[in-house]
Amino acid sequence: MTDTKHPLDPFLPRLDPDEPTVLGSVTLLEVQDVAQLLEICRDPRVGRYLLGRLSDTVALVDPGAEEALVKALRGTGHTPRMAKGVEL
Amino acid sequence: MSGATPRFILAASQEHVEPSLDHLSSDDARRAARFWAGKHTGSQAKAACVERIRAAWRDPKRIAKAMAALRPDERAVLAVVKRFGGQISGTLLLQELRARGIMKEPTREERLSYHRAADPIRELCERLILVGGARDYSSFGYEREYSSVALPQRVASNVDAAAPLGWKAAAPTAKPPESTHLRAPAQMVVDLEQTAGALRTMGAWKVNQGGALSAAARNRLAKLIPTSSSDPLEPPDRVALDYSLLGALGAIELDGPDGRVVVDRAERLFHLPTLEQASSWVRAWMTLRLWQDGIGSVPDRDSRDESTRIDPSSLSKARQLLVWALTRVAHGDGAWLDLETFLLDLYAATGESGLSFYWNGYAWHPRFAAAIDKDKLPAGVERARAFWMDDEAIWAANALLSTFVHLGVVERGRSGGSRSERWSFRLTDLGKAVFGAPEIQLEKKALDGRCLAIQPNHEVLLYLDCADGPAITTLGHLAARQSSTGIVQTFKLTRDSIYGALEGGMTPTAIESFLTERSRTGIPPNVSQSLAEWSRKREALVVRREVAFGLGLPHGQQAIRGRTEGLGAQCVVASSKAAAKGAEELGITVEPETPFRDWMVDEHGVVSLGKSLSLVGRARLQRFARFAGALWQITAESVGAARALGVSADQILEWLAAHLSHEVPAVLASAIRNWAGGRGRAFLGEVVLLQVDDPRAFDALRQSERFQPLLRGLLASGSLVVPADQRDEAADLLRELGFSLDAECKVAPARQKLDLHDTVEQTISLVRLASAGRIPRRRSRR
Predict the structure, then answer these.
(1) Quick one: which of B129, B226, B734, B748 is 20 to 30 A from B317 by CA?
(2) Lowest mean pLDDT across B50-59, B136-145, B465-474, B568-577
(3) Residue of B551, B637, B650 to mutate, testing the A interface (most A Cβ within 10 Å of its Cβ)
């Protein structure tokens, strides 16, 4: 079981690979702060499409569920910005 | 955007045509050569004649000289063709020439005579001054008709375009109408923009034959753009009209069975000056096949048994002739025209074969005095006209007072009560410019572009009398339309509408500056605050696609460059390309997008992993399984916990299917569904079973009146259930009937494959019938 000290752990565990890992093409959900991520992942209608968190503000979206996630976010009153590629 | 000088509404767009010399007969070549190159005593062979024609055409002086030698009626014909942009349909050419007195309508005797008067069109075509020609001499007694003719460029430069024709009503309108109705042209722009916007949100949609909206697509569109109109003569099927116009204007493209909006073409169209847009609507209207005036949407097919539409080619001709008449009205005195008088004049001008088709059931059917008692009239001109006034004229009335009013080019007038009503019309200023171009131009109003008023309740009022295409288009992108009628239309800024605009590519700054520049009242502070808040909320949540990331990377690694802020020391988000390159440098294999299917799971829910567990695989497993004692196991608790996080049984099974090398054991799949909340129901208990092998004996027992009270129901074929407390009574009765109760209970092995239809389904239906007191007779099996 994952350590549950962090408030996000019960809802969105931290991704913690045993060895260095690179994922080539994924979709991430980025938020402003941990409270916003907590609010989103605690909502089962949205949280079901998230797999884990990279940090307190970045979560990995289940591959293949991007459209469903956006629809769920819109359905729960969020207005996510759709971005493509990394912005440095 | 400034527009070019508007063209004559009926002017053809194709201006450069050349006669085909290679297809001339020898006689025609000789005749044309004599005209262009003069008398010649040398070779009269076709090739030599063609060469002489070509030589003459290379000499501008020779062309001018040849043109100067033409007769006045021939020059007049060329002037008419020049007015129509160098190309004119045979129908319009004939109307123009008759209206100008260059040709006259043949009398009945002349029509029946073999004699034909001099025909300037035929002669011009024979001498290759015009391209195209007549096709009227093949049948005796027929109305003279022509195919399209065109003016080659070398000739056109020597011809002045004919002056416009006016229109004089047979009887002047006694007095102006008592009530009038007109529509601001900008209303049409708003309608088209909203329809295009709604279609854009639909993505692609299914179309029927010819490109018409399928019923499902039409229903979806109707929901997206609810229409309400206070105009009783609004065109039928208004959304279909918008759709058809957008299609004819090139803003919709068809790809097999699918249609979609061509966004940039639609945007370009809406940004055109109003006059150019209105002209393009009228030109598009002349080509519509899927929408007909006074009828609405029609299929692109005909039926032998019933009329489905007005014949498209007849309607196309009628539309040309109506527009032709309006080009003449535009050059009239601008007075109100009585509708019935105008239609009678139109009939007189175009003849019985001008507008000629049949339809019954127009949306609006005004009663004209000239059509009253049409059946009682004796055969002849008056009767034919009366019937025309009750069919073709009704179409024209719908086109004029419904469609054209909707397009903003005609103003409608009405006088009298319901029994004595008289309809009239006149062209709006825009209509005069559309139909009167190029001579009549739209007076340019000095507008500052401030056509909006923004209210603190986030409503935006759009003043159509001073709105332009760019304002309407931009407002349509960032606000939701609330009302669709009136000269002032209401839109509303909402979080969703602003979100749509931002996702569509507008920036918060662009939205703010548009509203500031176009508003007469500025932006109320609370609205400005809402805009900023909505933009900020959007920025606060980002779904970022097509990125890569690395986790657990060596401290201080520089191989994968990307964003590390707020991600911790061993994590980086980068472009896919940078991640792939850096991973190679670090000797890390990039996880494949499609997972290896190397997991196994048993009926206990124990998951055996393959060689290595991918990050995505592990993250998924963590959502629905528990790691204990070096094993991952799916349990009731782990599935319940996943359910609490929103993960459904189907999602778990999909994840398993993506990673397993085999199918999920059926009993585990059932268990997962049960654990996730859809608990399956089962009966486990003791029953007293009566089993009879012989089908006839079985049927006899289950239908026996004596036995009925001792039966609880039917379990399967040959098996009945007896209530436990009546077991002894049933045994006594069976013995009395001669049955011995020493047979073995026969059951099939549980793993035996079931014949679902014959066993389970049949049993269920038998049980249902039994519980309803209707046990059927056993069916014999063939």
Answers:
(1) B129
(2) B136-145
(3) B551
The pTM is what? 0.77
Which one-letter DSSP state was computed for residue B370? G
Suggest the residue from A1, A2, A21 to mutate for an interface test with chain B (most B CBs closer than 10 A): A21
A54: nearest CA in chain B? B567
CA angle B760, B762, B766 (to 5 degrees): 115
β-pairing verdict for B688-691 and B719-722: antiparallel
Q: Contacts of residue B629 in chain A, CB cutoff 8 Å?
A: none
Contacts of A85 in chain B (CB under 8 A): 544-547, 575
Q: Does A32 touch chain B (CB under 8 A)?
A: yes
- How close A58 comes to chain B (CA, Å)? 8
Peptide bond into B152 cis (omega under 30): no
Q: CB distance from B545 to chain A under 8 Å? A: yes
Mean pLDDT of B613-637: 93
For B:553-572, CB contacts with A below 8 A are 553-554, 560, 562-563, 566-568, 571
Q: What is the pLDDT of residue B776?
A: 46
Q: What is the DSSP string of B307-352?
A: --S--HHHHHHHHHHHHHHHHHHHTS----EEHHHHHHHHHHHH-T
Backbone phi and psi for residue B573, each to the nearest 5 degrees, phi listed first: -105, 125
Q: What pLDDT does B108 receive?
A: 65
**Tokens 């100008």 belong to residue:** B100
Cβ-defined contact of A27 to B496 (cutoff 8 Å): no
By Cβ distance, the residue of A22, A54, A81 closest to B542 is A81
* Distance, CA of B558 to CA of B123 (rounded, Å): 86
B91-100, B112-121, B333-342, B470-479: least confidently modelled range: B112-121
- What residues does B600 pair with on adjacent strands? B608
Q: What share of chain A is helix, strand, coil (3-state, %, to 5)?
A: 25, 25, 45
Contact (CB, 8 A) for B111 and B96:
no
CB-CB under 8 Å, B544 with A85: yes
Measured CA to CA in angstroms, residue B653 lies from B80, B610, B647, B650 at distances of 76, 18, 10, 5
Q: How far apart are CA B230 and CA A87, in angstroms?
A: 51
Mutate to test the interface with A, among B538, B541, B555 (most CBs of A within 10 A): B541
- Read off the amino acid at residue B352: E
Tell me whether strands B459-463 and B258-261 are parallel, antiparallel or unpaired.
unpaired
Cα B241 from chain centroid (whole Å): 10
B403-417 per-position pLDDT tens digit: 999 999 999 999 988
Nearest CA among B231, B179, B181 for reference residue B421: B179
